[in-house]
Amino acid sequence: MDKSIFDITFQNTDTVSKIVVGLERISEAFRALLWEYAKTIGLSPIQIQILIFVAYHKEHLCTVSHLAKEFNLTKPTISDAVKALEKKGMISKHKTLVDSRSYFIVLTGEGKKTVSATEHFANPIRTQVAQFDQEKQESLLSTINTLIYKLNRTSILSVQRTCFGCKFYQKNKEDHYCNLIKTTLSNKDIRLDCPEFEESA
């Protein structure tokens, strides 16, 4: 039977376990910062995340179905959060042309103000990462991109929009290439969330 990564004796002798536990600690920092902002404005963390997501993504991604996949939550959970945001006057629902029963979410003026007040909640983490030299930043970005892609391919993450999973992405020996913009990409050019992303077959 495999040893648990949370077994301290084993963890201290296993590099992979240390990395996984380290990622857990970083996710805790992210959640703690988000909760801190949520408490000050009377919203839940997922409501803040929905508002920020809607602010920066195309309307076809701003539906209850997609948001449930995006945040790995159930449709009823997202639907409840959306209803609460609508009640607070922060979003409005627009029916889709394809199906009159479905709708996409749009920010109101109040919603945009809330995004402006909350969207920088993760800046304390950014500040620390910004202190790494360029080589470390690019190495970390490459590792994160690859990990997200692999977690998606094993169905642990429902959604990913990294270059590695896009139909326009091509690997030429050591180089990355985007067939949409016809450009060679460096490691730092690889995107985590590309607006032109189309999933590869």
Automatic annotation (TrEMBL):
Domain HTH marR-type: 16-149
Classification via InterPro entries: ArsR-like_HTH, HTH_MarR-typ, WH-like_DNA-bd_sf, WH_DNA-bd_sf
Keywords: DNA-binding, Transcription, Transcription regulation
GO molecular function: DNA binding; DNA-binding transcription factor activity
UniProt KW Transcription keyword: yes
SMART domains named in the record: HTH_MARR
PROSITE patterns: HTH_MARR_2
Keyword Protein biosynthesis: no
Pfam families reported in the protein's UniProt record: MarR_2 (PF12802)
Name recorded for this polypeptide: Transcriptional regulator
